[in-house]
Specification:
Elements (H helix, E strand, L loop, with lengths): L8 E4 L5 H12 L3 E6 L2 H10 L4 E5 L5 H15 L4 E4 L20 H28 L4 E6 L12 H23 L4 E8 L8 H4 L4 H9 L11 H12 L10 E4 L18
Parallel strand pairs: 1-2, 1-4, 2-3, 4-5, 5-6, 6-7
Helix pairs in contact: 1-8, 3-4, 4-5
The protein binds nicotinamide-adenine-dinucleotide.
The site of nicotinamide-adenine-dinucleotide (NAD) has 28 residues, from α1.
Length: about 270
Amino acid sequence: MMKRLEGKTALVTGAARGIGSAIATAFVENGAFVYLTDIDDALGQEMAASLGEQARYLHLDVRDEGQWQSVMAQIIEECAVLNVLVNNAGITGFEEGCFVHDPEHASLMDWHAVHRTNLDGVFLGCKQAIQAMRRSASVGAIINISSRSGLVGIPAAAAYASSKAAVRNHTKTVALYCAEQGLPIRCNSIHPAAILTPMWEPMLGEGPEREIRMREFVQDCPMRRFGRPEEVAAVAVMLASDEAAYMNGSELNIDGGILAGTVATPKTASET
Ligand SMILES: NC(=O)c1ccc[n+]([C@@H]2O[C@H](COP(=O)([O-])OP(=O)(O)OC[C@H]3O[C@@H](n4cnc5c(N)ncnc54)[C@H](O)[C@@H]3O)[C@@H](O)[C@H]2O)c1
């Protein structure tokens, strides 16, 4: 197999499972040295160990600037450069069960919690990566994992949608800033939808209703199925590689065609 990321050093946040672990795996398969980071240390370590000598696990809570600084310092000390950052860590706010996050009832605490991980985490990652890449004269690519929810309104997940929309916009600001500064750092966003990962578990539940719910969640998807984490990882490999040297400030949807149409009409109160 052609190794498209040979010689590159990458950092992936939220890499213990789901889309992050698929991206880390694809990066290693393509020749990169990958730092997998997460707050779930047991799972993160297990994942990194399964990838062999080209992978290493470090604890990183994306909400904590001090942790970002230590991780960046360690990477530059060990590898001299950082070429790729994937800001993947994200939460829906539904991890502990399905709560209402609509614009009328969402609590300020829940709103802030979702933004702290999804938006503050991406802001801090971009900030620390730009500084580390500048100091080490690295040719860099930053990939921010937004969502289709960052492109359309989601009545039941207001905080998530708002945080992901902000990630989309910040990606473009970072791309322009780096270009303005003459830094060889590209920044692009990926917008997945309905990718079957553990993030969906609280919404799918167990038992006989699970299959029905799965079908319901993809009924507006032209391809009538969930996407696979590997399908997102393939696009991340392309954006991280030199093949995407002229892609900057762009957004790529991976959603089975959901956003190609206008079927996502919100339910009326009597239907919910
Ligand atoms: N799965 C989907 O359908 C989908 C759709 C659109 C966007 N996304 C986005 O893709 C990204 C990955 O989603 P996923 O489905 O793999 O989710 P997931 O819940 O399976 O995995 C998320 C990972 O992030 C880690 N994490 C959570 N908070 C963290 C923090 N503060 N610091 C560091 N790590 C933290 C978790 O421990 C977990 O390992 C997220 O940003 C998500 O919003 C997913």
